[in-house]
Amino acid sequence: MANVRNLKKDINYVLGDIIEAVYLFELSTTGKPTDASNAVIDEAINTFDALITKVNAKNVENKKAHFKQINTELEQAANQLVAKINDLQ
């Protein structure tokens, strides 16, 4: 991990792209939000908040392992959210 700033950018870009994918799905199908698509967006926002809180934690002993764990959690959460977007169809 190069630095904290890049990790925060990765979190922002990945989850932002997922939310954008939900909006594109909505536009290409119903043209309006559904309960299922809103749930995916809410989950992405909650994931963003949780990961940023972990990144900003100050009382961490091993920062390298901590940030590596956050990166792993981001990847897992992104894969789950993408699977949920695919299930919307």
User: What's the story with the biggest beta sheet?
Assistant: none
Number of helices: 3
Helix % is over 70%
Report the radius of gyration as a whole number of Å.
15 Å
Q: Please tell me what the overall shape is.
A: elongated
**Order of secondary-structure elements:** HHH
β-sheet strand percentage: under 5%
Give average pLDDT, whole number. 92
Give the class from helix and strand content and strand pairing.
Answer: mainly alpha
Counting structural domains, the number is: 1
The tally of beta strands, per DSSP, is 0
Distance between the termini: 35 Å
> Would you identify the regions where 5 or more consecutive residues have pLDDT less than 50?
none
Describe this structure in words.
The chain has three helices and no strands. The chain has 89 residues and is mainly alpha-helical. It has one domain (4-88). α1 packs antiparallel against α2 and α1 (4-28) runs parallel beside α3 (63-88). The longest helix has 26 residues, at 63-88. The model has no long low-confidence stretch (mean pLDDT 92).
Q: Which tags fit this structure?
A:
89 residues, mainly alpha, 3 helices, 81% helix, elongated
Task: Walk me through the topology.
Blueprint: H1 4-28, H2 35-55, H3 63-88
Short description:
This protein has 89 residues and is an all-alpha fold. It has helices spanning 4-28, 35-55, 63-88. Helix 1 (4-28) runs antiparallel to helix 2 (35-55), helix 1 (4-28) packs parallel to helix 3 (63-88) and helix 2 (35-55) packs antiparallel against helix 3 (63-88).
